[in-house]
Amino acid sequence: MKITIEKLNHVHLRVYSDPSIEQELSDFFTYEYPGARYTPQFRARLWDGKVRMYDIHRKTIYVGLLQYIQKFAEQNQYEIEYKGDILTTTDVSIQEIEEFAKWLNPMGHGKPIEIRDYQLEAVHKAITDERTLLLSPTASGKSFIIYTTVRWHLEHNRRVIIIVPSTSLVEQLYADFDDYSTGNGWRTSFHCQKLYSGFPKDFSKDILITTWQSVYLQPKAWFHQFDVIIGDEAHQFKAKSLTTVMEKMDQVRWRMGTTGTIDNKKIHRLVLEGIFGPVHRVTTTAALMESGRLAKLNITCIMLKYDEATRMSRNKNLYQDEMDFIVRNDARNRFINNLALSLNGNTLLLFQYVEKHGKVLYDMVKDAAGDRHVFFVHGGVDGDDRENIRALVEKESDCIIVASFGTFSTGINIRNLHNVIFASPSKSRIRNLQSIGRGLRKGDNKEEATLFDIADDFRVGKFTNYTLKHFIERVKIYDDEKFEYKFYNIELKG
């Protein structure tokens, strides 16, 4: 029994065999979509809630999933026949990459950068394998890995498109490139072009740094001008519009995705690996802490205990009812307010709902903060304003930022951040790890950071409330990442 594989382009493989084997392959690559049962399509019986990575009619699958096809064939003792070159590689030694990186003479904040072995290995992996998904946690030097990779491709006359999820990350990456280049005379303004709302769409330079929103409507032929695609914060490349962008780049040979963490849901990982390539773990947060490159993380888990009457009244609530009760609970909000005001150093207070929670917390903290700077950051705040806040916090020592998870949990780098408070419950692995990462960068006078994880206990008998279950999931993440944590029970009064 034989499976035949041929490469259609840099996005899709054609995989075909006996019809019975094709059906087995389809079943192997079929997954339940998380939360599908709650979607209107599923409820209307327009969708069975499953995602099929192998298109049995077109007989196509993402190139990046080749390793899983090989695993399927091995498990079932099927022979594989390859037609033509399936995956190309570039012959470059790690020594060449190291010499090149040193030749760049990279700088960071006016000081020479210490190039780390795992960074060189990551760049080497991206260039030689030609497609990879780099798992690179906060403070591992991900932007420097991107910069070095881009500079290498530029030296080999390849045009590069870098796609990020937000305008603030366009500006941040551009500024990072500028910073790294101060010691080698390379001019970012000459080689790089920014593209988002308000910028001209005509592309004339070697490197384009853009948001996916700015390019996803471009015709397929427009993407053919690029040789390299880099997707930063690649975990956000799950939406249909983003996969559409990637599929339009079927002539783009070199593909690199970078992210600090990957969702623990298998379907999400497979999509990312499919469009970028196999995962390569650059390093780990625990390893960075052990080496002293990250601040030591202290996690304080605060379990808010509610009185019997409250617990009894909440034990049959739906999830949204429970969330509404939590965010509107005055005693809970006063506790968070007092906690934020009691902490020394800059504090990031993260919430989920802007109007019914974030605005309430901000007003409460602002009224009681006296002369301390208090900032309110959410999706409606302009990108330039967010950057100004970030820059100000770097210079201050006692600010409080009340921010939505969506705006400050990902990609915003503040070295001078000492405390992070989870004011809203969440079980998302990506959101939680990215949020924790905001506080882990070391600063001039910062060796430690503290996370305050607030949980709510409404347990009655065998009943366990929804948000407490979310907290249990967060603790599992802390265990997986080998973070140390302490528990405190607080009787919530009022």
Task: Please give a structural write-up.
With 494 residues, the protein is an alpha/beta fold. The chain contains 20 helices and 22 strands. The strands form five sheets. A seven-stranded parallel beta sheet has the order 11-12-10-13-14-9-15, with helices on both faces. Strands 18-19-17-20-21-16-22 form a seven-stranded parallel beta sheet, with helices on both faces. It has a four-stranded mixed beta sheet with strand order 5-2-1-6. α4 packs across α5. The chain is globular. The chain starts with a strand and ends with a strand.
Q: Biggest sheet, in brief?
A: 7 strands, parallel
CATH architecture of the largest domain: 3-Layer(aba) Sandwich
Query: Hey, roughly how much beta strand do the residues contain?
Result: 15-25%
Measure the end-to-end span.
70 Å
User: Total strand count, please?
Assistant: 22
Cα radius of gyration in angstroms? 24 Å
Low-confidence stretches: none
Derived from helix and strand composition plus strand pairing, the structural class reads: alpha/beta
Q: What is the fold named in CATH at topology level of the largest domain?
A: Rossmann fold
The CATH superfamily of the largest domain appears as: P-loop containing nucleotide triphosphate hydrolases
Name of the level-1 CATH class of the largest domain: Alpha Beta
Which outline best applies?
globular
Helix content range of the residues, please?
A: 25-40%
